[in-house]
Amino acid sequence: MTGEVHKWIDIEMTNKRNTLHPRDEIMRTMDRIYRYRMTTTSGGNLSIRDSAGDIWISPARVDKGNLNRRDIVCVHADGTADGLHPPSSEFPFHKAIYEARPDIRAIVHAHPVALVAFSICRQSPDTRLFHQAHSVCGKVGFAPYACPGSEALGVSIADTFSKGCDSVILENHGVVVGGSDLARAFERFEAFEFAGKTLIKANQLSPVRFLDEDQLRQAADRCVNFDSYDPDQATAGELELRKQLCDFVRRGCRQRLLISTEGSFSARVDADSFLITPTQKDREQLHADDLVLVRGNQREAGKLASRAARAHQAIYDKHPHVQAIVFAHPVNATAFSVTETPLDVRTIPESYVFLRDVRRVPYGVQYRDDGSIADYVSRSNPAAVLQNDGVVVTGSTVLDTFDRLEVLESTAEAVINAGAIGNVSVMSGDVIDELCTAFNLN
């Protein structure tokens, strides 16, 4: 078949017909936000405006960690409400946003700690840390303070949204984001909080480096060229790899090593092919049949491989020992990627044994078609920091790769935290030599 070129399509344009009832969608999304510790038992509210103009919203004064579908309230255009509870006290600003922005069909409001920190400093995070956050979060705004639940707050927030903002910090309050549906609003909310957390961590290291317009365009305009093909029946080995990848991607999301719109994970099937996560799909919701089989210049029919697929392929081609690869954006390691501070993992024996010396990759190398990203990893350097784009980690199995990613992020967090206590002391050259001998590190 002829080659198909797919470029990044704005996430808001990739919607499919949603068949989940608003009650269930709000309940499930709130459960996810609560599990991720991005809201409290009493804080935050979600809403959906359906095709009939009714607004479905989470209730007032009900435990956010234990919502069920019967708790969700439907408010009609005439102001009457159906439900066991009154609607959220913040309903007025949800209604005001919908009136100001007909394109918005869902809203997330919560008090995640990083964005609250920005709100009480009267600042908004600059999402130009990396291209994906900038793309997903959309235009960022700041709404002046008004009393929670008041009409004045609705006016303040709606005015900010009416200026084209999609992610809005509320002065001394929290954050509100809107989207074309609740899935998109959640992704935007999650990416915004992730950018905020990364900025806070990075500012503890050194001045933050932001991307300019040309760099953002370089990432947005990259293409992936693959022919479409129908692979043979999957072997038991491939089926096992599909399950492993999905399990570890889900675990990574729940441990906040990955978020729903960031990162790619792959595993080698044989010398010529590998499985990889798809583009534009929520990472935590992936199923085994969502993964894309890539063989040479072909990808499994009916699916779009991650835009990082060529970078994965280059690493597999150059390094036969590599059996799995993850590109990820864990907050602490990513903080090093957006500053000039090197990530020195000579902190504890486990960190060095698992990671060795972590190299730094100049911005954009992983987007090139020349395969040069493969020059930055090897058997003796299994992980690297990607300038303004997180990290890449390789391993001998899916488990080995995930373990290294965990160790990398834990080490990065320990180094950042240590800086608040005193000077970071790394292991001496003699200790490193001893480790290399003891663990046969070549």
Automatic annotation (TrEMBL):
Domain Class II aldolase/adducin N-terminal: 24-200, 243-416
Pfam families listed in its UniProt record: Aldolase_II
One term of GO molecular function: L-fuculose-phosphate aldolase activity
UniProt keywords, alphabetically: Lyase, Metal-binding
Gene3D superfamilies membership: Class II aldolase/adducin N-terminal domain (3.40.225.10)
GO cellular component: cytosol
Record-linked InterPro entries: Aldolase_class_II_sugar_metab, Aldolase_II/adducin_N, Aldolase_II/adducin_N_sf
One BP annotation, GO: pentose catabolic process
EC number: 4.1.2.17
Protein name from the UniProt record: L-fuculose phosphate aldolase
